């Protein structure tokens, strides 16, 4: 039987239910709602601090019309960061390594921002296709280029998240396999590779958080243009 | 004088059963505790409580709230509550994917 390193991205099923269903449901269990008490417990205080800080940071540069998106953007950020970080635990499944899920997040939200811009302020929305100060001979080509870049945005959003997480997981598995195999033959080299693995794991934790933030930040930027 | 209807086994979700004695209030079958049921009502109770999504959802919510109140919503909470949950998640993921993982065992020839 041929074992491939990509087998980790296949969602295993138990009694017909794939593990991805559990993995997507877990953030709902992890993230609790703070109660109406004056002082919550420590975990809720930390969570509330993080959510408030993040929402403030995200919505500060935005117009009032974009503030309607506060709930959905913060919820998306919490979901992505929880899914990404939980995927770093051993034997767990990371749903965001699946392109289908990330495109399902990216395309509807991007399309909503574009439609909001086109319906509410069509002149301004179309005006974004030509940056200010462009020399006249370049105008036709630049409009084509900007249109292409507009349509590539959801693809870039989805693929960025998928590729970063998939590459990270794959790299960790590769280096872990190398360490494991080298332990019996060349222990000193195995020690070096295990050090690399440790550093890579730290990097993966950072990447997990940053990629979730970048996804939501870019969406908020697209919203800012159109609102 | 009490109204006494025979226990009906037709699958109707929230059938109200009249109390056998005068003092007992009528409680829907689904909302009764397991130990308060008559034997003949257990199968329909089980089907309603386990197979329908709404009941399963409420059961998960109750479980989550109980865990939260016991281990996390305490005066001086530490890492223990969250760590136990994450360990449980890892174990469940391992069990879930065992048929897939067992092919990755350390063996001489793959």
Task: Provide a compact summary of the structure.
Chain A: Keywords: ATP synthesis, CF(0), Hydrogen ion transport, Ion transport, Membrane, Mitochondrion, Mitochondrion inner membrane, Transmembrane, Transmembrane helix, Transport. The complex is a heterodimer of chains A (227) and B (110). Chain A is mainly α.
Could you walk me through the main structural features you see in this protein, from its secondary elements to its overall organization?
- Chain A: It holds the Pfam family ATP-synt_A.
- Chain A: One of its GO terms (cellular component) is proton-transporting ATP synthase complex.
- The complex is a heterodimer of chains A (227) and B (110).
- Helix content of chain A is 71%, strand content 2%.
- Chain A is built from 7 helices and 2 strands, in the order ββααααααα.
- In chain A, strands 1-2 form a two-stranded antiparallel sheet.
- Chain A starts with 12 loop residues before the first strand and ends with a helix.
- The model of chain A has no long low-confidence stretch (mean pLDDT 92).
- Chain B has 110 residues and is an all-alpha fold.
- Chain B contains 4 helices and no strands.
List the helices and strands and how they pair.
The complex is a heterodimer of chains A (227) and B (110).
Chain A: E1 13-14, E2 17-18, H1 19-30, H2 42-59, H3 70-86, H4 99-120, H5 122-127, H6 139-185, H7 187-226
Antiparallel strand pairs in A: 1-2
Helix pairs in contact in A: 1-3, 2-3, 3-7, 4-6, 4-7, 6-7
Chain B: H1 42-50, H2 53-72, H3 80-96, H4 98-101
């Amino acid at each position: 039987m041929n074992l491939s390193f990509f087998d980790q991205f296949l969602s295993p099923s138990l009694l017909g239910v794939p593990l991805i269903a559990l993995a997507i449901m877990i953030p709902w269990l992890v993230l609790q709602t703070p109660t109406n008490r004056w002082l919550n417990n420590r975990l809720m205080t930390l969570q509330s601090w993080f959510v408030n800080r993040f929402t403030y940071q995200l919505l500060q540069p935005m117009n009032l019309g974009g503030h309607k998106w506060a709930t959905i953007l913060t919820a998306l950020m919490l979901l992505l960061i929880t899914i990404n970080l939980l995927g770093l635990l051993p034997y767990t499944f990371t749903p965001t390594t699946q392109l289908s899920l990330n495109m399902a997040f990216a395309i509807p939200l991007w399309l909503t921002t574009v439609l909001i811009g086109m319906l509410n302020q069509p002149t301004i929305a179309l005006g974004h296709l030509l940056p200010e100060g462009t020399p006249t001979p370049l105008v036709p080509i630049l409009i084509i280029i900007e249109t292409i870049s507009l349509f590539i945005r959801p693809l870039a959003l989805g693929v960025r998240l998928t590729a970063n997480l998939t590459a990270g997981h794959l790299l960790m598995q590769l280096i872990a396999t190398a360490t494991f195999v080298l332990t019996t033959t060349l222990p000193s080299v195995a020690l070096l590779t295990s050090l690399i693995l440790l550093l890579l794991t730290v990097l993966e934790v950072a990447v997990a958080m940053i990629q979730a933030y970048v996804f939501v930040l870019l969406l908020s930027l697209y919203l800012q243009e159109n609102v | 004088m009490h109204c006494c209807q025979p226990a009906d086994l037709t699958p109707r979700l929230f059938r109200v059963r009249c109390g056998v004695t005068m003092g007992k209030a009528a409680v829907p079958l689904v909302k009764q505790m397991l130990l308060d049921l008559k034997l003949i009502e257990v199968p329909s109770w089980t089907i309603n409580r386990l197979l329908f999504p709404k009941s399963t959802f409420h059961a998960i919510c109750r479980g989550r709230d109980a865990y939260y109140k016991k281990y996390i919503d305490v005066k001086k909470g530490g890492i223990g509550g969250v760590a136990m949950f994450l360990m449980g998640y890892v174990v469940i993921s391992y069990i879930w994917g065992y048929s897939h993982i067992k092919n990755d065992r350390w063996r001489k020839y793959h």
